[in-house]
Structure formats: C-alpha cells, structure tokens
Amino acid sequence: MADFEFLIYEQDGAVVTITLNRPEALNALSRPLEAELHQALDRAAADAAVRSIILTGAGRAFSAGYDISGSQGGPARERLPTSGFLRSHWHSAMRNPGMMMHIMELPKPVIAAINGWCVGGGFWYSLACDISLASDRAVFAQPEVRMISNTNVLFALLAGWKHAHRYALTGDHFDAQEALRIGVINEVVPHERLMDRAMALARRLALVPPDSVRLNKAITTYGLEAMGLRQALNVNGMLSTLVEASNDGPDVAHLEAARRERGFRGFMEARDGPFTPEPFGPRSRPRE
Q1: 18 φψ region: left (φ > 0), alpha (ψ -120 to 50), beta (else)
Q2: Which structural domain, as residue segments, surrounds residue 59?
Q3: Model's pTM, two decimal places?
Q4: What pLDDT digit, counting tens, does each position of 138-165 carry?
C-alpha cells in the first residue's frame, strides 16, 4: 500500500502478506522499516477479514539484520562517552523484547517465508513467528557476535542450548536443512515454491475459527511467558547493553580501523574474512 515506504502490504482474501522492501540493503532493519512492520502487523490484527499473515522479504533476503551501516536510522557504533553510550544502547536493546513479544502475542498467526539471507535481527524475527518455512536457498547466521554483539534467547529456546551455542558463539552460517535439523524452522521448500506453500498454509489456518486460533496461540504464548520468557527477553536486552559496551577492546579495534580506512565493506571483510569458508551456504567454498 502507498502509505508504507519500506514494506509492501498486500491482502488476498483472508491472508495478508507483508514484504520487507529494502532489497538493495538485503532488507536490513532500519528504525523506519521496523516501525512500519509493527504498524502493518497491527493493521492486519485489527482487520476482521484477515485470518493469517505471511512475513517475507523482497529480493535475495528475508532480512540481513539490523542496519549497522549507519544509514536509514540504523544504530551507529561510534563510541560515545560511557554514560551516553550505555543510555543509547539501553533504549535500543530494551525495545527488542516488546517487538518479539508483539509477534508472539498478536491474535493472528504469522508465517515467516524465509526466502534467502536471514541474519542477525532478521533471524530473531523469524524465531518469533508462529511457523517458519524456508527456501532451500535460505542461509541463517548471527555474524554480529564476531564484532562483540549479542544473540537472542529465543534461539536457545527453540534449538536447545547446545545447538544454539554452536552458532551463537561463532556467528557461523547454517543452511535451511541445518535449521530444520536443529528445530528453528518447520519446513524446507524449493525456492520457487516458497510463497505458494506459505499461501497454502496461511489459507489452511484461515479455515479454523479465528477465536480458536487466537486462544490456542495465547495458550502457548502466555504459557511461555508464565515460565519466564518475557523476563528472559528482558534480561537478554539488559545483557545486550553490556555486550555492546564491551566493544572497545583490542580484539575489535581492527574492525573500526578497517571501517575508517576502507568503509563499511572493509569492516565486513575484516569481521568475516577470517571465518571463511563458512560451514554452510554460498560462502562455504574455500577462499582462493
């Protein structure tokens, strides 16, 4: 719809498809895009004609995570005085629990149709969705941990802490089959059939009385909250602030030097180059 700048909102009968639409930036999550996403979710939730929601991305990515390039309102990593730095990251990090729970508490089911790169904060959003379908081209990762940043407790909740630590402590890439094996997606679908499969499942959900869907979704979500999920996410946010405050040590000084000398691409090469080849995905081929 015309009133969204960074996403596409399309309704087909009882199904709404929300497409993150910054393909030139691999749908990196900027503050404006994220605000529009939650507005779109609320719009679909308030529409009695809508029974289910599909969340996907335009182009080659579901989402490449939070925009750390400094453009489009993404969080900057420049070092502020300590009090200002902590205050900035506290406000940023403590937004995340509410945004993850917004999807989980939404009265209508959300299907993630993961069409490609699903990285960092984009991966977190996929974890919060009710059902996740992945293209056989999908690649998952949290490479931000390599520059001192944080994972999300939802990963350990779904995969178990052994699987989560294998990837959350290295930032390594894993493909759709590995994501299925460890339990963070429901199904792997041939790339060209992903949206058809998501739509078929969304229409199947729409056949169930909406009050039944709403209440059964609430049983799971509020049950997890009663067991401490929201508190775990809040602690996740608090610890995220400490993680970000630790990014001024000698182990990461070369990353900011690379950014100053060679720009954002140089920063990414310095961060991820030593980890190639990755275990899975298009970067699993040995370097020449």
Answers
A1: beta
A2: 7-275
A3: 0.92
A4: 999 999 999 989 999 999 999 999 999 9
